[in-house]
TrEMBL record:
<dbReference type="Pfam" id="PF08281">
    <property type="entry name" value="Sigma70_r4_2"/>
</dbReference>
<dbReference type="GO" id="GO:0016987">
    <property type="term" value="F:sigma factor activity"/>
</dbReference>
<dbReference type="InterPro" id="IPR036388">
    <property type="entry name" value="WH-like_DNA-bd_sf"/>
</dbReference>
<protein>
    <submittedName>
        <fullName>Sigma-70 family RNA polymerase sigma factor</fullName>
    </submittedName>
</protein>
<dbReference type="InterPro" id="IPR013325">
    <property type="entry name" value="RNA_pol_sigma_r2"/>
</dbReference>
<dbReference type="GO" id="GO:0003677">
    <property type="term" value="F:DNA binding"/>
</dbReference>
<dbReference type="InterPro" id="IPR013324">
    <property type="entry name" value="RNA_pol_sigma_r3/r4-like"/>
</dbReference>
<dbReference type="InterPro" id="IPR014284">
    <property type="entry name" value="RNA_pol_sigma-70_dom"/>
</dbReference>
<dbReference type="Pfam" id="PF04542">
    <property type="entry name" value="Sigma70_r2"/>
</dbReference>
<dbReference type="InterPro" id="IPR013249">
    <property type="entry name" value="RNA_pol_sigma70_r4_t2"/>
</dbReference>
<feature type="domain" description="RNA polymerase sigma-70 region 2">
    <location>
        <begin position="3"/>
        <end position="65"/>
    </location>
</feature>
<dbReference type="GO" id="GO:0006352">
    <property type="term" value="P:DNA-templated transcription initiation"/>
</dbReference>
<keyword id="KW-0731">Sigma factor</keyword>
<keyword id="KW-0805">Transcription regulation</keyword>
<dbReference type="InterPro" id="IPR007627">
    <property type="entry name" value="RNA_pol_sigma70_r2"/>
</dbReference>
<keyword id="KW-0804">Transcription</keyword>
<feature type="domain" description="RNA polymerase sigma factor 70 region 4 type 2">
    <location>
        <begin position="100"/>
        <end position="149"/>
    </location>
</feature>
Amino acid sequence: MGHRTALISYSARILGSRDAAEDIVQEAYLRFGLGNSPAQTARQGLAYLYRIVRNLSLDTVKRRRIEQRAQNEDPPFWIVPRTNETPEQTTMFCDEVRIAQEVLASLTQDIQIAVEMHRHGGCTLEAVAEYLGISVATAHRHVRTAMVKIAIALDRKNA
């Protein structure tokens, strides 16, 4: 615990947030305690602790970038409400919605829930992950998988 302040400063430089750094250091101490063997010297233990803090901090930064990228994307056209001007456009749109529904129905329930919560409900990937009991990366993968499969199915229809 004597190196806590230095570890927080180290993590804060990577994360840009002292509050987040404190959480990372707490997690690092927990992981360090689980994997620490009595044969390690104090110097090796400190180096290992710094490595844990660094890896957790970099993982957090990477996760934030992925989520930011996902949130900044324009939603697919088939999610955005729109007015249809002609009966032909209405028919085409209904056909595209049906295709999207069929693709979603063919996916696992977890993927369906992740898409509904994130894309339609506006939930963050963290909230989706917590609800489903999965990691944030897996929640992102679920949403991305569904979006890609829907896009491929719609491209096939339009080809």
